[in-house]
Amino acid sequence: MNGQETCVCPNDQCGKTFEHPLQLTVLCNDPVETYPACPYCMSRIENEEEREEREPQEDQELANETPIALKIKTALQKEQERETEEPEEPTAPKCTHDIGYLKKRPKGTSIPDECLVCPKMIQCLSG
Fold this sequence. Notes:
The structure is a single chain. It is built from 6 helices and 4 strands, in the order E-E-E-E-H-H-H-H-H-H. The longest helix has 19 residues. It is rod-shaped.
């Protein structure tokens, strides 16, 4: 893109014109990704080949989202995939005390760290 051409941001909410797009580097992706972006809203500016590869509906959806919104959307999708794969049960450290230990312990004695994350802490306090 030479200095004479102007670009229009594809994001409908921005829509600003500019001569020089930024080179945006996304370091949180693996592999690291660099692409031209709108200097106002950081939306991706695509070349003709990239635009033709996508379906028209996808093009409109992506144009309305900023890169941060896309990252959040991707992260949420990955989280949903993880949740549907295998629900992981939180694992607490093995309890070294009996239920009721926290209620019976001498006053002024600190609560052990493993008790603070124990799912049976309330039972143990009231026990």
